[in-house]
Amino acid sequence: MKFATKAIHAGVHPDPATGAIMTPIYQTSTYVQDGVGNHKGYEYSRTQNPTRHALEKNIAAIENGKFGACFGSGLAAIDCVLKMLNPGDEVISTNDLYGGSYRIFKTIFEKYGIIFHFVNMQDVDAVAALVNENTKMIWVETPTNPMMNIVDIEAMAKISKAAGAMLCVDNTFATPYLQNPLDLGADMVMHSVTKYLGGHSDVVMGALVCSDENIANEMYRIQNSSGAVTAPMDSFLVLRGIKTLHLRVQRHCENGEKVARFLATHPKIDKVYWPGIETHPNHEVAKRQMRGFGGMISFNLKGNQLEDALSIVKKVEIFALAESLGGVESLIGHPATMTHASIPKDVREQSGVVDSLIRLSVGVEDADDLIADLSQALA
Ligand SMILES: *Cc1c(COP(=O)(O)O)cnc(C)c1O
Prior knowledge:
Number of helices: 13
Helix content: 25-40%
Structural class: alpha/beta
Distance between the termini: 48 Å
Bound molecules: pyridoxal-5'-phosphate
CATH class of the largest domain: Alpha Beta
Mean pLDDT: 96
Strand content: 15-25%
Number of strands: 12
Radius of gyration: 21 Å
CATH topology of the largest domain: Aspartate Aminotransferase, domain 2
CATH architecture of the largest domain: 3-Layer(aba) Sandwich
Oligomer: single chain
Order of helices and strands: HHEHEHEHEHEEEHHHEHEHEEHEH
Number of domains: 2
């Protein structure tokens, strides 16, 4: 089955009780049993809930995986994966990781004896050089936030397979419509469902997808044992969101391209970071592993003045100044003072997060209106 058909139909069936075409919101904590141990597959909603179950099957299908699990946030999904590790195990990850992932690695799991290495993952040899007999996980994020760097997933899979380590890919920015890490050799895919999968800025949720039965058993054991599950109402909203994922992401890509090309020719702009632009340093890798380049764009200004960047994010009228991304509406952010404010200035500047860097989550509005808005704000 092709993507659009799976997005709409995978995991969902007309309700057996009424024929309702939409999966009902099974807002229930427990399920009546006919006799002890004689039930319909559902005993308690932390362990299993029919609305969540439909969503988990749907997300697994659109990621070309066999098993899906949904959590109360993207970070709760990351928490589940990390709990598969043991004290002394080592993780190799990228040095421009999502801030929340960095925080859970360093401030939660490091104190349980897990060791994290951060490296520039565009440099495949530098990753290979960090592997030793304790390496149990390689954690990839691609494209990265906010610099839109691209990591070669197949190259990472080669290293993880040789090391006997698990390769996990945070696929939040690309979405399953543009990139399927399991097909490229990853063992686990993670999503902040909050972003493009939900797509309407109304839910916080995370998901994991894998195809290996042993990994899946661990995933479900930890999901049930730690209990960071998502709610039936939220599962319903995301099932609805995913039905238009392909349509939305197509438009995000079209608008992303138009806005990126507008910015690239603007006299006040220094650099534009969007993997679809031919001059992007990882454009060839992006073309190989992605089917489109999405609507996330960063750019910085000539002269690199903080005040100029702050003035632009204030002057825009259609773009909303907010954290998060991936919704139908366009957002604008200033990483140095918002998402990356906790990182020391010299450290963030090394990775490109300079004072005048601005990040856009280009929505699905009319591209002409978005360009006119940026144009007046830049004037
Ligand atoms: C938002 C985000 C997360 C965390 O997800 P939450 O749903 O906010 O917990 C993880 N990775 C990336 C790339 C994100 O953008």
